[in-house]
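Protocol step 4 of 6.
Sequence for Adenine phosphoribosyltransferase (Sediminitomix flava) entered exactly as in the expression construct, tag removed. Do not edit the line below.
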Amino acid sequence: MEESIEKYIRDVKDFPKEGIMFKDITPLIGHPEGFKLAINQLLEQVDGLSIDKVVSMESRGFFFGSVLADRLNAGFVPVRKPGKLPFDTYKQEYALEYGTDTLEMHIDAIEKGEKVLIHDDVLATGGTAEAVVKMVEKAGGEIVLISFLINLAFLKGEEKIKNYNVKSLLTY
Ligand SMILES: O=P(O)(O)OC[C@H]1O[C@H](OP(=O)(O)OP(=O)(O)O)[C@H](O)[C@@H]1O
Ligand SMILES: Nc1ncnc2[nH]cnc12
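Step 5 output, structure tokens:
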């Protein structure tokens, strides 16, 4: 059986709020062998798909998203929290497992018809991923894969992005 990244994920109880079991990926990225393993497994998920742009969300999505873009010879598109991107942006509100927020993406970051991989570390309620999907589609991008390290399946986030090709390395 293929080695799992699971041993590098730390559970932190009641962070950032009581009742949340936080999946901490800092041990994963802190161990070179864990980081490499995760990168290689994320690349296996892409499995020959041609990708023009990798889109990832601030901030934990950036850890792997930019590496994937380099390895796939794709461009990298940061989706950021409000007020951080300097040029004109699409804006999308969303609900989180622990609050609400807005995300932004530059309006010229994706060209019509470009093939897009959306990557984030964790799929929880799916609000973040759904917001990013909406902005990518507003820009005219074609979403070929939405990839995660971890799917917290009990939060049913996949239902919000059920019409897409969704893959995760670990499911809880
Ligand atoms: O599926 P959802 O319920 O929308 O939650 C998943 C999102 O929550 C976390 O980000 P967070 O907003 O905590 O920001 P961070 O990456 O900057 O820590 C995580 O990195 C995902 O982006
Ligand atoms: N439980 C959780 N652990 C880590 N990241 C998250 N993002 C949303 N919920 C999370």
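Step 6, annotate. The radius of gyration is 15 Å.
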